[in-house]
Amino acid sequence: MRALLLAAGFGTRLRPLTNEIPKCLVPIKGKPLLGIWLENLTLAGFGPFLVNTHYLSEQVESYVQASPYANRVVFVNEPELLGTAGTLIANLDFFKDEDGLLIHADNYCLADLQNFLAAHKKRPAECLMTMMTFRTDSPSSCGIVELDGRGVVIGFHEKVSDPPGNLANGAIYILSREFARVLKTDFGETSDFSTEILPKVMGQIFSYETESMFVDIGTLEAYDKANLNS
Q: Over pLDDT 70: what percentage of the chain?
């Protein structure tokens, strides 16, 4: 299965760490985050990969080209950032009309990706995609989901002060080919996946909860947590 890794952000909240290194290359126990993703995805049977770049793009490309995954990665540079949904929609043809994986590559995730795929294949018929979720200690800083009895997402609360629970959206998704077609026809001018697309497909998102290590590397505190506990 092909995978699109979103890796173009500035990592503003990680400064000064990201003043001279892109967020996707910050090291976790000495290994760049993007390298961890490419290794784990390859071991789980996923690929090839598309990586979008913007901030310090030369570093990202140089790293991948010197890695064992160079011949499995295609880059798309964005002179102006398109947003999470904008990048996805602009590159839907990469998935070749098949199901595909969408990853916010600034997450440090040790989930069993084969189990994630197996859950997607068993999703309810009306579900267009499968979202990876995890339990968070800071729910007000995450997108919190509500589920029905079958594990279908029926509510989504993006970074609100008093969310109903601590089951968070991991921003890692398996998208069905049917959903890709919907994105092409109905969401052409959309830029943000979480705030502009997810609320419009409530009741059509299956969930998979991982109990493995999962950290959104969004702050220096989270970055330290990943390095201490990984």
A: 100
